[in-house]
Amino acid sequence: MKVQVRYFASLRETIGLSHETVETQAIDLAALRTELMARGEHYRVCLMPERPVRMALNQIMVQDNASLTEGCEVGFFPPVTGG
């Protein structure tokens, strides 16, 4: 299936993309994150499990067990604080 992936803040800067369309076999966000890490060092540095990364699915904050669907939008971004 194809999903739209968006990267924000430091993730965007490290990966070098703000967004991309990804062909994936992943069924959930955890599996997608693993697939993306296999793409190379820039992805691995940003998305490794030890790094706190927030995720959104169709603009709603979710956990990594959220199921993917054809054409969904996934967002990855570092934790943020407001004030």
Care to describe what's here?
- The chain is 28% helix and 28% strand.
- The chain has helices at 9-15, 29-37, 41-47; strands spanning 2-7, 19-23, 54-57, 60-62, 73-77.
- The chain contains three helices and five strands; from the N terminus they run βαβααβββ.
- The longest helix has 9 residues, at 29-37.
- A hairpin with a 2-residue loop joins strand 3 (54-57) and strand 4 (60-62).
- It is of the alpha+beta class.
- Strands 2-1-5-3-4 form a five-stranded mixed sheet.
- The mean pLDDT is 94.
- It is globular and about 25 Å long.
What oligomeric state is this? single chain
Report the sheet-strand fraction: 25-35%
Which H/E pattern describes the elements?
A: EHEHHEEE
Shape: globular
Q: Helical segment tally?
A: 3
Largest sheet, in brief, is:
5 strands, mixed
Percent range for helical residues? 25-40%
Span between termini: 39 Å
Mean pLDDT: 94
Quickly give the structural class: alpha+beta
Radius of gyration: 12 Å
Q: What is the topology, as strand order, of the major beta sheet?
A: 2-1-5-3-4
Number of strands: 5
Low-confidence stretches: none
Summarize the entry for a quick read:
The chain is α+β, with helices and mostly antiparallel strands. It is 28% helix and 28% strand. The protein has helices spanning 9-15, 29-37, 41-47, and strands at 2-7, 19-23, 54-57, 60-62, 73-77.
Defining traits:
5-stranded mixed beta sheet, 83 residues, single chain, globular, 28% strand, alpha+beta
Write the layout of secondary structure elements.
Blueprint: E1 2-7, H1 9-15, E2 19-23, H2 29-37, H3 41-47, E3 54-57, E4 60-62, E5 73-77
Parallel strand pairs: 1-5
Antiparallel strand pairs: 1-2, 3-4, 3-5
